Amino acid sequence: MTSTVPETQPTTPDPLDLEAVDALEFWVGNALQAAHFYRTAWGFDLIAYAGPETGVRDKASYVLQQGKLRIVVTSSLREGTEISRHVARHGDGVKDIALRVADAAAAYEEAVRRGAVPDKAPHEEKDDNGVIRKASIAAYGETVHTFVERRDYSGVHAPGYEPRSTVADPLPPVGLLDFDHSVANVELNRMNMWVEFYEKVLGFSLIQGFTDEDISTEYSALMSKVVSDGEGRIKFPINEPAPGKKKSQVDEYLDFYNGPGLQHMAINTDDIISSVEALTARGIEFMRVPDTYYEDLKDRFADLDLDIERLRKHGILADRDDEGYLLQIFSRMNQDRPTVFFELIERHGSRGFGNGNFKALFIALEREQERRGNL
Fold first, then answer.
1. Are 73 and 60 in contact (CB under 8 A)?
2. Residue 156: pLDDT above 60?
3. Exposure string over 253-287, b if 16+ CB within 10 A, otherwise e
4. pLDDT average, residue stretch 197-211
5. Cβ pair 228, 204 in contact under 8 A
6. Distance in angstroms (rounded) separating the CA atoms of residues 253 and 61
7. Beta strands in the chain (DSSP E)
8. How far apart are CA 138 and CA 118, in angstroms?
């Protein structure tokens, strides 16, 4: 008697197997000036441009890159457009957290099947460099996620864009590498709804959660949960305010942004001290924690060769867990409204988010709020 082994059925790829964050697109009041800011102050290279000179009649966009980071700054050339209305309501902010996928149409269709609200149906954009395929769904506030399929496109960014070269930069390179995570601020009692959205629609998992007891001071508090894709390539912490004696940083954001949106982006560097020194030389300012914070660090990191005095000098925070440690720092706001800022993070094994720094960071944020008269 012979027996047969059943043939192994091929596994169907998940259309929502996200490859990476493709780009963040900011909608801003003046894209030319914003591009200059991110080139000069943050050390990005200008790689592409779209506008009237390239056949785009209603807007101007500049594409900037550093390491694997890519950001796009876009402004309207006319009043009454979606972009101009967005900027009037929110100020400069992130409209699109674009996600790279193998098949944009399949990703969109699966996301909608799972309950996503459609934003833009699948479509193609073509030029001599090939075709790029896109589709987008709505997220929190007016933020969207665009699925971007690049496999048949060899151009610098997308059709309608022409390459641009950055002039020689006399300042030290900043050394930013890639997106680490992007943090959303949403309204009270809406955090769990958006956690469920990312779990159900994009297949993310809840990997960490913090209560108002974890992230609070005498005056204010917030709650936060972190969702991530299966490979840990894309991580989205989601914050909501918690009741307190005074206005929290999330409340302040919601007031000035006029609703939920992306609050800050954390960016990897493999040498945070050099990055901070380079950015400081370029005019970027960072939030500071009380000097007493560093006295505690000497004991917590006594077994590691960390130069605590250099961390103190630059205002860099440190935290550790069972997997390793990390260093992090937060910039001041990137625009006049107290809404969007950047975080730099250097990881040494730790996959956390600086849990041990929440108290010190909250105090620093409250100092900034008090300076603005918004605490």
1. no
2. yes
3. bbebbbbbbbbbbbbbbeebbebbbbbeebebebb
4. 91
5. yes
6. 26
7. 20-27, 45-50, 59-66, 69-76, 93-100, 118-127, 130-138, 144-149, 162-163, 176-185, 205-210, 221-228, 235-242, 261-269, 317-321, 324-330, 341-348
8. 6
Q: Which residue is it, tokens 């600086």?
A: 354
Helices of type H across the chain: 31-40, 82-90, 104-113, 191-202, 249-257, 272-281, 293-300, 308-314, 358-372
Neighbour-count burial for 59-84, b at 16+ CB within 10 Å, e otherwise: bbbbbbbbbebbbbbbbbeeeeeebb
Q: pTM of the predicted model, to two decimals?
A: 0.92
Place of tokens 């930069």: 169
Contact 29, 139 (CB under 8 A): no
Task: Using only the alpha carbons of the chain, give its radius of gyration.
Answer: 22
Structure tokens at 184: 């959303």
pLDDT bucket at 10, cuts 50 / 70 / 90: low
Rounded to whole angstroms, how far apart are CA atoms 266 and 182? 6
Q: Lowest-confidence range among 19-28, 164-173, 229-238, 278-287?
A: 164-173
Cβ neighbours of residue 31 under 8 Å, at least 6 residues apart? 59, 60, 61, 62, 73, 74, 75
pLDDT digits (tens, 9 = 90+) for 307-329: 999 999 999 999 988 899 999 99
- Confidence grade of residue 219 (pLDDT, cut at 50, 70, 90): low
Contact in structure between 204 and 227 (CB atoms under 8 Å) = yes
**How far from chain centre, in Å, is Cα 12?**
30
Mean pLDDT of the chain: 91
CA distance 38 to 27: 14
Cα distance between residue 148 and residue 135, in whole Å: 7
Domains of the chain from N-terminus onward? 20-163 (3.10.180.10), 176-372 (3.10.180.10)
Residues in the chain: 375
Q: What is the structure's pLDDT at 2? A: 47
